[in-house]
């Protein structure tokens, strides 16, 4: 399993959010650099966002979720066209970052 995983759930319909584009960036030398990107599957997950065996160094990261495109495909207006979740990597353990999403709100937490 990848060190970093995510799961996007659309709480407005009570189902996983499929085909949400996600970009992972690392903050280094006063700028953000893209490390990986992917698209959620039919279960709203990206299990292998990082290449196999890749371990993130300690530091600041962010995941950018393209929620605008997800809702546009459903012809739904959203207040949040993208969700940016910044977080810190402290060690080599597993980091799971779920996103609970609706057109006018979102929530996240560190899962396991």
Structure report:
The protein is 6% helix and 48% strand. It has 112 residues and is mostly beta strands. The protein has a single domain, classed as Transthyretin/hydroxyisourate hydrolase domain (Immunoglobulin-like, Sandwich). Strands 1, 2, 5, 8 and 9 form a five-stranded mixed sheet that branches. Strands 4-3-6-7 form a four-stranded antiparallel sheet, with helices on one face. Strand 8 and strand 9 form a beta hairpin. The longest helix has 7 residues. The model has no long low-confidence stretch (mean pLDDT 95).
Tell me the layout of helices and strands.
Blueprint: E1 4-10, E2 15-16, E3 21-28, E4 31-39, E5 45-46, E6 59-65, H1 67-73, E7 83-89, E8 95-102, E9 105-108
Parallel strand pairs: 1-8
Antiparallel strand pairs: 1-2, 1-5, 3-4, 3-6, 6-7, 8-9
Number of structural units classed as domains: 1
Mean pLDDT: 95
Question: Remind me, CATH topology?
Answer: Immunoglobulin-like
Helix content: under 10%
By CATH, the superfamily comes out as Transthyretin/hydroxyisourate hydrolase domain
CATH architecture assignment: Sandwich
Number of strands: 9
Strand fraction equals: over 45%
State the separation between the terminal residues, measured CA to CA: 12 Å
Tell me the overall shape.
Answer: globular
Largest sheet: 5 strands, mixed
* Rg computed from alpha carbons, rounded to a whole number of angstroms: 14 Å
Counting helices, strands and paired strands, the structural category is mainly beta
Count the helices. How many? 1
The level-1 CATH class: Mainly Beta
Relevant terms:
112 residues; Immunoglobulin-like; 5-stranded mixed β-sheet; 9 strands; 4-stranded antiparallel β-sheet; mainly beta
């Amino acid at each position: 399993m990848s060190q970093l995983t995510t799961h996007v759930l659309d709480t407005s319909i009570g189902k996983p959010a499929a085909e949400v584009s996600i970009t992972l960036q690392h903050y280094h030398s006063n700028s953000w650099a893209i490390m990986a990107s992917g698209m959620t599957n039919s279960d709203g997950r990206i299990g292998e966002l990082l290449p196999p065996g890749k371990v993130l160094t300690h530091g600041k990261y962010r995941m950018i979720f393209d929620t605008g495109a997800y809702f546009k495909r459903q012809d739904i207006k959203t207040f949040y066209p993208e969700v940016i979740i910044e977080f810190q990597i402290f060690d080599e353990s597993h980091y799971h970052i779920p996103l609970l999403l609706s057109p006018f709100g979102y929530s996240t937490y560190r899962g396991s």
